Amino acid sequence: MTSKDFYDYIIEHYNKELPFVAYSLPNTFETKVILQKDDVLYKIEDYTETGFVFAPFDIRKDAILMPYSKSRTLLTTEDIVVEEETPISFKVDNDKLHHINLIKKAVTAINKKELQKVVVSRKEVLETELPLDPIKLFKTLLNSYNSAFVYCWYHPKVGMWLGATPETLLSIERNKFSTMALAGTQDYEGTLEVDWDYKEKEEQQIVSDYVVETLKNSINNMDVSEVRTVKAGKLLHLRTDITGELNHSKNMQKLILKLHPTPAVCGLPKIDAMQFVLDNEHYNREFYSGFLGELNKETKIEPRSGTRNIENRAYSFNKRSTNLFVNLRCMQLKNTKAILYVGGGITKDSIAENEWQETVNKTNTIKNVIVS
Ligand SMILES: C=C(O[C@H]1C=CC=C(C(=O)O)[C@@H]1O)C(=O)O
């Protein structure tokens, strides 16, 4: 489908205030949209459903589904043209002091051995003169962050969310499984050949060890890669890839609940870190640091010509896949307000001012597309 038709359908759908999610998987040149035909708020019951899931950080709250059976899916592989923009000016509202105090409180709890690591976060509100156009912002995100999972999600009963996340929660194709441990941040200054401090190495190792330990009974032939430096927009992170084959315990819900929230967005021990976050952040993360993506997607695989059986009938089969991402580098749009969500991992070696600056740098992933 042409890119023009693709976006015209989305705009028509959005004007009717019907739910949709447009997205592009990392390192692909395909953009898909799921256009839900009614405005019902479908909820996940047990993760056996098929559709696009949008789950909050606090998993006790409802995860939302756009079921494939209630939707139409479109796809385009054509390049998008982003119209020249006049820069948008905005006012920023954040509370640095509150966040610095939160970081210090987290370090104190770690020094008292109550926690090993905790990810603390905040929101930042940008106020613009005119309402922001989500479709234009989505196109700019797509053009800027090809290696990310880029999305624009809308439901009239929930709101509008956009993001470009570098982090996979899990990916499953038949019984092939992969995930990643992503943590540690520094600015990208033109090279991937950089040194990392002990603080970042430890912070990432905690995530990696947790994921390996958590999955060891569910995954056969587990392979854990070397830690490498990866680029995400103008930032660098440390990343380990963890792959293997799902054994007989293929229960998707159990698998998701084991992993989410990983110490890349919550902390360790998991329950204590979660309690620290809920008691001390003093705002609702909502869908930030939750997860989203394709759940139990069936794709029909057509045979190559020549692969025919005796009755000369071609074999085709269905392939099932799930691709879920952690909702980072994201924002919620509310008319003239863009609410940006951001956090960072705190360990005993954290320096409050540096951690604050890291959150400021992370918000630039989103701010850059608003002002571009
Ligand atoms: C929690 C966030 O990032 C996570 C992913 C990569 C690096 C992180 C860090 O260095 O703190 C975080 O664990 C965020 O961007 O809001």
Automatic annotation (TrEMBL):
<feature type="domain" description="Chorismate-utilising enzyme C-terminal">
    <location>
        <begin position="98"/>
        <end position="362"/>
    </location>
</feature>
<protein>
    <submittedName>
        <fullName>Isochorismate synthase</fullName>
    </submittedName>
</protein>
<dbReference type="Pfam" id="PF00425">
    <property type="entry name" value="Chorismate_bind"/>
</dbReference>
<dbReference type="InterPro" id="IPR015890">
    <property type="entry name" value="Chorismate_C"/>
</dbReference>
<dbReference type="InterPro" id="IPR005801">
    <property type="entry name" value="ADC_synthase"/>
</dbReference>
